[in-house]
Design brief:
The chain is about 40% helix and about 20% strand. The chain is an alpha/beta fold. The longest helix has 27 residues. About 5% of the residues have low confidence. It binds 5'-O-[(R)-(carboxyoxy)(hydroxy)phosphoryl]adenosine (KG4) and zinc ion. The site of zinc ion has 5 residues, from helix 4.
């Protein structure tokens, strides 16, 4: 460890993953431990907030100990503690925030509260993780530079499409932690639409990865679903009409006693979402004059979205950035990356740091 190295111990507990990571100088992940609660919530068809908080409490100490051990460092080597303090489930967030405050206080380390979505965006700054920019996209779309060793490291400004379970935002990342929101969803988030459609066809929770998988066997042009545009807002999204169209399709088929081809339905729905996301993101990059486009959030791990974005970026001479799939869904390494840049800017939080369940992007 170099004397000047900045090591962040990061904690994330905003939803159903208890996660801790050690990140060196914002870009290098020394450890990334994620205890997922998915199996626990599956039986209820979605995240149960009370169960999530209790499970975070049970797991957080061992997850943090595991992250330090895997990184080969002790608490005394750590420069600062970074923690997600919003947005998310309040009880879940509180577990991470209280833990981070306790550690920072006891070990006399600076405390840095991180916006969860700022963390998702910062996953694109991590360059040493297997799969970053090289998960096979380059083989499928020839000529796309997908290897982090040849792709220049990402620095602002750039356009980022943020697509998670709770957020669908198109932003210009002007500087580290500085965002201008240029588009957002008017109703459901992209991940939410995936989850609802998955539930309707009986694929279960979590829906996104299951639709992604089913769609690989299906025909994306089998069913023509509507592509909604928001009048006068070229960068905004709307997924509720699409979701209703899928539900109507299922109901009609059921009433007529017809079997539903789940792979075709999954592929057709996914194709409509991907088209909406890619077209607006590429338009934004071109219209605003940026040559770098990144994706972030759980839905950014979607294989069809990654392939379509890679193709569109290539056709439009844009440099495409995407985190490794495991860094797209909730993790603490991304929080460590964001906390590093906040640390460099001088952001420090006091012992009064609280969980803010509806924290807005750009708010401190
Ligand atoms: O970023 P994330 O882990 O948590 C939030 O901050 O919301 O995103 C979770 C969302 C869920 O809606 C999940 O279904 C979706 O991301 N998701 C996917 C895929 N993997 C996760 N959606 C589509 N395709 C995937 N492969
Ligand atoms: Zn998230």
């Amino acid at each position: 460890m170099e004397e000047k190295d900045i090591l962040i111990l990061a904690i994330e507990s905003s939803c159903d993953e208890t996660a801790a990571a050690v990140v060196r100088n914002g870009r290098e992940v020394l450890s990334n431990v994620i205890a997922s609660q998915i199996a626990l919530h599956t039986q209820f068809g979605g995240v149960v907030p009370e169960i999530a908080s209790r499970k975070h409490m049970e797991q957080i100490n061992q997850v943090i100990a595991g992250a330090l051990k895997e990184a080969g460092v002790s608490l005394s080597d750590i420069t600062a503690i970074g923690v997600t303090y919003g947005p998310g489930l309040v009880g879940a967030l509180l577990v991470g925030v209280a833990e981070a405050k306790a550690i920072a206080y006891a070990a006399k380390k600076p405390l840095i509260g991180v916006h969860h979505i700022e963390g998702h965006v910062a996953a694109n700054f991590i360059t040493n993780y297997p799969g970053c920019g090289s998960d096979g996209i380059s083989e499928k779309v020839s000529g796309v530079s997908g290897n982090p060793s040849v792709q220049p490291k990402l620095e602002p400004p750039f356009v980022c499409l943020i697509v998670s379970g709770g957020h669908t935002h198109l932003v210009i990342v002007k500087d580290y932690g500085e965002f201008e929101i240029i588009g957002r969803t008017r109703d459901d988030a992209a991940g939410e639409a995936f989850d609802k459609v998955a539930r309707a066809v009986g694929l279960g929770y979590p829906g996104g990865p299951k639709v992604d998988r089913a769609a690989r066997e299906g025909n994306p042009h089998a069913i023509e679903f509507p592509r909604a545009k928001v009048e006068g807002a070229p960068y905004d999204f709307s997924f509720s009409g699409l979701k209703s169209a899928v539900l109507n399709y299922i109901n009609r088929a059921k009433m007529a006693g017809e079997a539903i081809c789940v792979p075709d339905l999954a592929a057709s729905f996914q194709n409509a979402v991907v088209e909406a996301l890619v077209s607006r993101a590429v338009l934004a990059a071109k219209e605003y004059g940026y040559d770098k486009l990144a994706i972030a959030g759980g839905v950014a791990s979607n294989q069809a979205l990654r392939a379509a974005m890679a193709k569109a970026c290539k056709e439009n001479s844009l440099c495409f950035y995407y985190p490794a799939p495991v860094l797209c869904t909730d993790n603490a390494a991304m929080i460590g990356a964001a906390a590093y840049y906040e640390y460099q800017k001088g952001t420090r939080h006091g012992w009064d740091l609280n969980a803010v369940p509806n924290l807005k992007l750009g708010e401190r």
